[in-house]
Amino acid sequence: DSLTQKNPSLNRGRVDFQIMDEVGYEDCDWISQEKPATFWLENFKNKSTWPIELHVPCRTPLEHFLSQCNQLQVEFDCSTSDLQEEIQKCGVNFMKRFHPNLPKSFDVKCFDPFPIENYVNYMSHVLQPRRLPVPHVNRDSNTKKRAKEDECLRKAENSEIAKQVEKLLFEMYEYYGFCRDCIGTENDLFHKSSKKDTS
Fold first, then answer.
1. Which residues contact 94 (CB under 8 A, 6 or more apart)?
2. Looking only at Cα atoms, what is the longest distance across the chain?
């Protein structure tokens, strides 16, 4: 189609950000954007007649952090003398997607994104099915296959360093504190079920 002609990586199921912004989001039931938190604050904050519920995926801090390192193909160095500087090599820009002002402006929920089928099942009871389904095409978020066994922060001899890194993650990024305080509470999408439904 015309989208694919413009960019081979685009199609009706993966529309260009500029086109989405131009069309607007007024008729959307569900919006997924990997953008800074300002996107939500600038586009939806003052629309009191249009209630917005934000769903924030929350992984454990070290698992999320090491996944970011892998995506950027950065190998964390446990022998560094500056842990904070080493942490910043692994995608500080990603953390701009969350801001402590979001819960002040929206109803913000959290959820464990693994396995993703839990969230898909949850949303299947909220969203109406598409009349013309778009075939799913798997697109790995990480360009490099992750070798968890080689990550130094997972090794027993570096357990104290791992604890220091986790402590710094909470201090440096509000996102991790939000997730810590949200998971398991009434704002956790899955908190009512002791065993998640994976059907």
1. 68
2. 57
Q: Please work out, in degrees rounded to the nearest 5, the angle formed at the alpha carbon of residue 69 by the alpha carbons of 95 and 182.
A: 40
What is the phi/psi pair of residue 11, to 5°? -165, -175
Instruction: Say how far apart CA 130 and CA 143 lie, in whole Å.
Output: 30
Structure tokens belonging to residue 121:
């099942």
Query: Collapsing DSSP states into helix, strand and coil, what is residue 85?
Result: helix
Distance, in Å, from the CA atom of 83 to the CA atom of 180, rounded to the nearest integer, reads 21
Residue type, 88: Q
Antiparallel, parallel or unpaired: β 107-111 and 53-57: parallel
For the whole model, what pTM was predicted?
0.86
| pLDDT digit string, tens, across residues 52-77 | 899 999 999 999 999 999 989 999 99
Alpha-helical segments (H) within 24-172: 38-44, 61-71, 83-88, 102-105, 116-124, 159-172
